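During the no-cost extension, the postdoctoral fellow (Dr. R.K.) reprocessed legacy sequence entries with the updated structure-token encoder. One reprocessed record is reproduced below for audit purposes.
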Amino acid sequence: MTKKTKKNALIIFLKYPQAGKVKTRLAKDVGDYEAARIYSNMALNIIDSVVDPKSYNTILFYYPPEKEKEIKDWVGEKEVQYSPQVGNTLGDRISNAFKEVFSSSADKTVIIGTDCLDITSENIKEALYLLDETEVVLGPAEDGGYYLLGLNKYRPQIFQDIDWSTEHVLEQTVLRIVENSLNYSLLKTLKDIDTVDDINDQFWDVLKKAQ
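Re-encoded structure tokens follow.
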């Protein structure tokens, strides 16, 4: 990441849509290649829905690091920056991404993934607004995780001792927040798409669109 961030920043975590490497739970129902196609369409749709250069700077933290060229070709022309995910665990990679962005002069930063089709730039702006009054903002997901996390300061302690990719992520994150005497706000609960049962008719219409 070469450019300085603006005061408000959005981190998007995404993976290269390689068959067998993304949406493995969904792939059990639809197969590896269809799961990768769905993930690709979903991720691009989310990026288009949240990028808002007038309101905040957007950085795509991608994985794996060696797929930088392929990921840039896949995402296409967008007003975003790119940086590789760094760390052995998901918690490490999230923590390191926040550290990098805050060290680049951002004072409020939100992170999202590419699993929630309902998310828009309005959710990001609401979280950034709340960070003027609270230290942490969480967007709960129906599956027990979160689709968004916002911070007004780098706080690595809230990513420790979390059972990532389980239904306990939100509960354990709130516990870390409380243990560290931080205050937090919650956004409305939204749905992540992890299995075929999570995809309703509206989502199928979005995902069936050609890239």
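The domain at 8-199 is CATH 3.90.550.10 (Spore Coat Polysaccharide Biosynthesis Protein SpsA; Chain A). The beta strands are 8-15, 57-63, 81-84, 108-112, 136-140, 146-151, 184-186. The remaining legacy entries will be reprocessed before the final report is submitted.
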